[in-house]
Amino acid sequence: ENNFDTYSAEINAEVPQIDSEEGRKRIKALGAEINKKLSEVDSPMRDYLRDIKKQPKLIEAIAKENKEKFTKLRADILKPLEEAQAEQNAWLEELNQIPVTCAIPGVTSDELKGFIEYAESFDLNSVWPELKKKFKVAQENALTTA
C-alpha cells in the first residue's frame, strides 16, 4: 500500500498536456509504465498464491502416503499374530456353532451326544490365556444348549 502511494504520487506529479501530440504520447507511455509496474508487483504475488494453493494438495498427498505406510506397517506387525490366532478362532467358532446346530430341528440324540463329548473334551489349557474367558463361555454355552 505504501509503495503504491509513493508510486502514485510520482505518476500524478507529472501532468502532461493533453493538447499536444507529445503530451498524449507521454500519457500513453505513463499508462504502459503503470502496466509494467503492475506486472512487476502482481506476478510475484500471483506466483506465490499459486504455490500456496498447491500446498493443501501436497500436504494431503504426504498425509495419504503416511497413512498407507503406517497401515501397512501395522498389518505386517499384526500378521503373525493373526495367523497364529486363526487356529484359536477356528476352535472358538466350532464351539459357538454347537448351540446353533443344536437348535436345528431333527438333530438326533447321537449327534447331540457327539457335540457334548466334543465340548467336554475341549482343553482350555490349550488356548492362549487372553482368550480363555471367551472359550470358557463358548464351552459352557455349548454344554448347556446341547
Short description:
The chain is mainly alpha-helical and 146 residues long.
Description:
The structure is a single chain. With 146 residues, the chain is mostly helical. The protein has one domain. 83% of the residues lie in helices and 0% in strands. It is built from four helices and no strands. α2 crosses α4. The longest helix has 82 residues. The model has no long low-confidence stretch (mean pLDDT 89).
**Quick check: average pLDDT?**
89
Number of extended strands = 0
Helix content: over 70%
Task: Characterize the overall form.
Answer: rod-shaped
Order of helices and strands: HHHH
Task: Report the major sheet.
Answer: none
β-strand percent reads: under 5%
Q: Give the tally of structural domains.
A: 1
Name the poorly predicted regions.
none
Radius of gyration equals 41 Å
Report, as a whole number of angstroms, the end-to-end distance: 87 Å
What structural class do the secondary elements suggest?
Answer: mainly alpha
Protein name: DUF1351 domain-containing protein
Organism: Pseudoalteromonas fuliginea
